[in-house]
Automatic annotation (TrEMBL), chains A, B:
<keyword id="KW-0456">Lyase</keyword>
<dbReference type="Pfam" id="PF03306">
    <property type="entry name" value="AAL_decarboxy"/>
</dbReference>
<keyword id="KW-0210">Decarboxylase</keyword>
<comment type="pathway">
    <text>Polyol metabolism; (R,R)-butane-2,3-diol biosynthesis; (R,R)-butane-2,3-diol from pyruvate: step 2/3.</text>
</comment>
<comment type="similarity">
    <text>Belongs to the alpha-acetolactate decarboxylase family.</text>
</comment>
<keyword id="KW-0005">Acetoin biosynthesis</keyword>
<dbReference type="InterPro" id="IPR005128">
    <property type="entry name" value="Acetolactate_a_deCO2ase"/>
</dbReference>
<dbReference type="GO" id="GO:0045151">
    <property type="term" value="P:acetoin biosynthetic process"/>
</dbReference>
<dbReference type="GO" id="GO:0047605">
    <property type="term" value="F:acetolactate decarboxylase activity"/>
</dbReference>
<protein>
    <recommendedName>
        <fullName>Alpha-acetolactate decarboxylase</fullName>
        <ecNumber>4.1.1.5</ecNumber>
    </recommendedName>
</protein>
Length: 237, 237
């Protein structure tokens, strides 16, 4: 069943804040819900990006690995790709690209995905290093992240947009992951200088929000003691 | 396909705040996602409660009507019932019932439904009066609600619990609708004195959040100008 109007999400962004980082879904299961997606591994083991059914992991050493079906994740999104052309951008900054997408799509209150394929300058990405149980909080883990830079690179920016009401469930606004065309550079996108290429969009009628119901640590955690929004905006901003 | 681990939701609670009250889903469509549920009609036309596949509306005159498949709703929940016994309560206040459910279920971070069937004292419900386009905001509409009271009544309390992270998407915490056993009294529950009866629970692994994607007013609305949380807690508290 490949419903292209459904965005699947496992876990919530918020559960990363107190370090509920057990891998509660396998990549094999995630791929049943889509051929395109993003996520992170157990213990915040790198940055995942799924393109055309292949799950790539950018680890904290900057290596790009294809992960096995048994690889587990605490948080991930996937969907079946059915993108439509939205616009072309030429030497556009990240901020300009985001504004143009929102102005063109005019759909700030639903989830959608965009894929920008082209040439990027001054790309900065990050990948987090895997922590072991007892897991670090997101704020602690973020201190051990690696930063990677490329002056100019061809590649694909895969992004999800979430309405602000869902900030904390997902990243409110845009959440970008990047993979180079040569599959040798990528990660969670922090910034780029300028992008030139094609922007495709896919809108979703439904968010299929799946919870890690078998994970006792998640089920019993008291989130009221966490600074969810402050820590997320610090780490994902 | 009757997956009893899925809670379906159409619309968000937040969209009621600025008065985005067009009926964007039919009752017939809602019933395809469950035989049990709650909701409100177009223009906040009463309080809906679906039990065993029958959709009852408590209107602002206090009448209980069975609505047709063509009846439309801006916001609703439904699921296929597969409740399990949780506990028995005897002369328990609403606050005590809610605390006992949370203490017994120990699942504050996932969505679940409870059904309390028994005898209730001092029940207070409300039902909102339907507004016409251009629709009133939730705060304005709430001023025109009707309040109903019963000293003692047998009936069913149908409740959904949402994790606090989803406050605004749904009602964070418990959201209760009531229907009397005689089908002559009900609505959105504001308070009861004491309840004696059986509490059943059904937990959900997935929230299937569906958006009114065909509604231009929803798609283009600027929610950043609304006091979503303050108005919701005023109206739904």
């Amino acid at each position: 069943m490949t419903n292209t109007t459904v965005l699947y999400q496992h876990g919530t962004l918020a559960l990363l804040v107190p370090g509920l980082l057990a891998g509660t879904l396998t990549m094999g299961e995630l791929l049943q819900h889509g051929d395109t997606g993003i996520g992170t591994g157990e213990g915040l083991d790198g940055e995942l990006i799924i393109l055309d059914g292949t799950p790539y992991q950018v680890d904290s050493a900057g290596r790009v690995n294809v992960v096995a079906d048994a690889f587990t994740l605490p948080f991930a999104n996937s969907h079946f790709a059915a993108y439509k052309p939205l616009m072309t951008v030429i030497a556009a900054t990240r901020s300009a690209v985001e504004k143009q997408i929102l102005a063109t799509a005019e759909q700030p209150n639903i989830f959608f995905s965009v894929k920008l394929t082209g040439t990027f300058t001054d790309v900065t990405t990050r990948a987090v290093a895997k922590s072991q149980p007892p897991y670090d909080s997101l704020a602690e883990t973020a201190r051990h992240q690696s930063i990677f830079k490329r002056k100019q690179v061809e590649g694909t920016l895969l992004s999800y947009y979430a309405p602000q009401l869902f900030d904390g469930v997902a990243v409110g606004g845009f959440h970008h992951h990047f993979l180079s065309a040569d599959h040798d550079f990528g990660g969670h996108l922090l910034e780029f200088g300028q992008a030139s290429g094609t922007v495709m969009i896919q809108t979703f009628a439904t968010l299929e929000q799946h919870f890690p119901v078998a994970d006792a640590a998640y089920q019993h955690h008291d989130f009221s003691q966490d600074n969810i929004m402050a820590d997320l905006h610090q780490a994902e901003g």
